[in-house]
Amino acid sequence: MNDLLRMILLDANTQWVLIGTMLLGIASGVLGGIALLRKQSLIGDAVAHAALPGICIAFLLSGEKSLFVLLIGATITGLLAAYSIQFIISSSIIKEDAAICLVLSVFFGFGIVLLTKVSQTPSGNKSGLDDFIFGQAASLVGNDVKLMAGAAAVLIFITALIFKELKVLTFDPSFAKGLGLPTGLLNFLFLSLLVAAVVVGIQAVGVILMAALLITPAIAARYWTNSLSKMIVISGIFGALSGMAGTLISTLGEGLPTGPFIVVTATALFLISMLFAPERGLVTKWIKRIANNKQLRNNKLLQGEKRSGYHEL
Amino acid sequence: MSYESWILIVGSLAGVTCGITGCFLILRKLSMLADAISHTVLLGIVLAFIVSQSMSGIYMLIGAVVVGLLTAVGVQMLHHAGIQEDASIGVVFTFLFAVGVILITVFADDVHLDVDHALMGEITFVPWDLVQWGFLPELPKAFLMLSTVLVINLVIIGLFYKELKITSFDPQMAAAIGLPVLLIHYLLMGLVSITTVASFDSVGAILVVAMLIAPGASAYLLTNKLSIMLLLSALIGVSAAVIGYYLASWLDVSISGSMATVNGIIFALVFLFSPTKGLLSRKFTMKKLKMD
Amino acid sequence: MNPVVVENLTVAYQKKPVLSNVSFEVPEGKLIGIIGPNGAGKSTLIKAILGLIPKAAGEIKIYDKKYRPKDRVVGYVPQRGSVDWDFPTNALDVVLMGRYGHVGWFKRPGKKDTEIAMECLKKVGMEKYANRQISQLSGGQQQRVFLARALAQDAKVYFMDEPFVGVDAATERAIIELLNELKRQGKTVLVVHHDLQTVKEYFDHVMLLNVNTIAAGPTEEVFTLENLTRTYGGKLSFLEKDQLIVEQK
After folding, report:
1. Which CATH number applies to C1-73+195-248: 3.40.50.300, 3.40.50.720, 3.30.420.40, 3.30.499.10?
2. How far is CA C113 from CA B148, B174, C23, C69, C101, in A?
């Protein structure tokens, strides 16, 4: 086991994959944290599903499996999905949850239709595109991994650049507008970053589980701090840990998909945080509440004695 | 009966069953929970197989209900512990789904269930997957399961129509007159779970979401009455299934994907052209108001 | 027998108590205003009495018994904003919901229930709008539909959460007439209320609440500048100018 692990770790390609999933984890942890506070967690889910038709269209148009082209296609349909959701909510009585669900499933359904078309083209054995559904980080090689790592790094960099503005926009959109910030543009920028993170992550985690990488580390981080900046950092770290651990586990066995293991790792981190984080952890709170209740009861007894009779109408 | 008519019948049954159940999800703002359950039902099916070592319908239904309710309870618990509802849903379903996928890959040799099939459905195989129940002649399994679930759904919605209505519209008032609001919530989630698993074979886990939500959303924009909304939603569900099938055989693409796409197109049309709540008619009334 | 008796009620979200040691009694056949600043726990009080949220401590009795919905002695008007008015249903249908407690499981509301519901709509002057989709009603009309629904519950004690918020003058008058009508029939009505100016005019009794009970009793005795200062604390300074003029009249 140890030897196997060492062998894996020494492999140059695996090292690249690990760096890639780590950077991806950081990027999605950070952006997911902001999405969580903007109550847009599940938009990431819809965007991820909506990437499938984009990937297929890009393939059908270009006729080649160049990752870069496929990701551009994914970005376009992902953004289209995000804006469709916002448009449906703002201009009809359909509520957010139904809009997200509708867009997610219809885009994905259309993606499946296209996927069957792709598999009929002479050059397209669909197995390559199939990996996008569950993610196969471990089998990624060469330039694809470097593209993923590079893109994730760029995302982290851009987010750091406009972090201050995003913070204001998240906390109080109307105040941000009052400050003269271009809120429409910022909204677009954030959505684009979110879509880009999802798109970059799809090959590692897959379209269905990508949402977890945006949501779970962010929720876990929420338990450790009340400060936005700290939360984002912790969320990034949790994302990186999940990405790396999931990738390692999936390389241990043949044919094990990466995405599910990344998700299980992230959820484990979340459960630990929910139970044991200082201040907000459930176990910590429970212990405090017992102490608190005792105090409350004692106080009440005292008050009860003092009270001479209750207010009568 | 011919091959084609079986596919049309099964598709329409899925359309009706999902269409009716989905209306309540939209009105209760629970669409995402249905999305979650449709994913986690995969785990239920895998577990049912591991426990029973068979792919028999009844075990699958039980497994689905158990895991579906587990999803609903899990979301409720996290939400109660102070986590935003959408995020609770995201955490719970991705985790349970991930566990399901891992189990399938680990037991890959034993489980005769491939993930692609579970996700996308394979309605083309439905007419050949025959079983015999009791005195009935050999019939497609998907047909039997969907009819059973449709009957269950109709009976339950019929019996508890006014309770479902008031708990959807005003849960506080419902609780104040002593209705078990939470129990009714879980009853509905149970219905969603069996609906999902019964539609699983034909349309797959993710596309069942389209069949649950899209017809209801379209119907919501067309009427002001709950009973008519249910009826319209069922109708739209059937039309989308039938049109989707013919479109798919014409273009030679995935049938379930095509049904979801047609559902999306119907919604887009209604969204634009609905006589009272459509985008165009609203724009028009606004203009008229301005002119006056 | 007093219809509502609350003793030492404490409700807490997490650690912070929202209501602490609230005690009061309500006499039968009166209009009672529940008054206090934002965050004083007014809505929470009603919800706790109806068992919609759990209480940390205390005793609540409705007609000398623990509150049981199936006794059907209580009618409830939630805040108008608490429901989604885009729900596909019409005004008459909403009022009919008030009959659900009487109809019981597995049965549909019958012809008689529909007649009662129509009657209730008439009492709030909304019979013309019976078949109107609820999202097409104005705020005041929606509030009247909610009141009609409470009437259809045919209860002895009514709890109303901010019925006067965002309604037009005509609706406000209609509501007041209705409240007085209920009083004449011997019903007891508790109303969460905001507008200090109208308190004296509308209510027989008031209860001043700010996490604790500040004071409770007949309006002319309890609704004094001193008690209000204790209820609203520093916030009263701006209230004094225009609203307490009523007080000095």
Report:
1. 3.40.50.300
2. 34, 18, 37, 19, 11
